[in-house]
Amino acid sequence: MSPRPAASDLSVIYPPNYYAFAGPGSPLVARLRRRWEAGKVRLYRELVGPGPRRLLDVGCGNGRFLSLLREFGAPEWELVGIDFDEDAAARCRALGFEAHAGRIEDLPVAEASFDAVIMLQLIEHVEDPVAISRAVFRLLRPGGVFVVETPNLGGLDHRWFQGRWWGHYHFPRHWNLFSTASLHRMLVAAGFEIVRSEYLISTSSWTISLHNYLQGRGWPAGVVRFFHYQNPLLLGLFVLLDSLRARLGLETSNQRVIARKPER
Hints:
Blueprint: H1 10-13, H2 27-48, E1 54-58, H3 64-72, E2 78-83, H4 86-94, E3 98-101, E4 114-120, H5 129-139, E5 140-151, H6 156-161, H7 180-189, E6 193-199, H8 203-216, H9 221-226, H10 232-247, E7 254-260
């Protein structure tokens, strides 16, 4: 994004009711999301292996995902969160987690302190993702994994709605967007080895893109409101579409890349 908001504008573009800080919306959507994300935690268990492990959730928000890690992860895991928002970090601490407010580059821990760093839908929000990747590399122990989920510029909805309507522009909050190839290049340049790369469902991108398109074209307000990112009917439709595309090896507008710090 150019020009970008100043750092002093962050409290405006991330207000207290921003969805990452707020509670769940639709109960049905919240239950389905929780079930899907519990599967992610099982993947992390495979990645880090058995025994005591220290995991860092970057952009921990209100602690929702830290709570999932505690519930579905290994009981011997030590879970830590960091968020730029002090109120968000305080909520995590109230849930019993170690949580810090600030930037990961300034996290007050020693190098090689973590076995896994998890960054879900965050790296697109930061000013300097290259510096973030290098900071994560320093914080990981040899053999540690960096799990990144971020929008992907190769999805079908990006091709249809790019230029103005695409939901993952998330103006003015998404400052850097990646193709799979560019994300790989950045991580490799920071010292990582790519372990795994895959495409995920991107239901909100479809619905928000359609919402933006219809609103911009002057469709009736009732029709536009139907295309809400938590509409269960639309979520179900686009879950099926993106799941099918991913199974066929086709790109979606959401990607997960798992990178590992080499053992040496």
